[in-house]
Amino acid sequence: MATESSRNRIQNRDSDSRPGAYLRREDRVVHAPRNQTKITFKSALEELTAARAKVQALESRPRARCRVSQVQTTLGSMITSADEVLGLLLRRPVRALVGTHLPALIAGPERKLFAERAKALMEGPEGGEWETRIIAPGALVGVPVAISIERGPEGTLNWYIRDLSELRQAQARVMQLEQIASTL
Known about the structure:
Helix content is about 40%, strand content about 20%. The protein has a five-stranded antiparallel sheet with strand order 4-3-7-6-5. The protein has a two-stranded antiparallel sheet with strand order 1-2. It is built from six helices and seven strands, in the order αββαββαααβββα. Helix 2 (about 40-60) runs antiparallel to helix 6.
């Protein structure tokens, strides 16, 4: 009787509708939470590998190929000029940002650390960055950025604000795929 039961399980292996019942890990199928399409373990691993490669490429991408805004401020950190990239990041016209104090664009509790971080960037090694979020006045959502600084001419500071949105989205996708792969 026990051998007949075993035989039935083997014969019903491909037709068993229960997820994971008598199937190898590679053959299991799950429904992705977002688009409800079937994902196999193999395809999930392939997509995870590709997503990890994208994150690595974004992390090692030279600054010249990133979306970087150059902002010039006074020593008191009031914006005197900015390029269109900052306007695009904050979804505000650049002319509305001129005259604003740069710390006012730093999101949340890190705003209080602005002077300390700026000093550390000025005194630290060249190429140092501060990862934070910037937010437009009155906006609800901030933009992840990396900020670096250098002294400009005649008592000014040049700030370079690098957009990290694409990197953060890629990292979130890797986390999502890792969670899906762990359920397979």
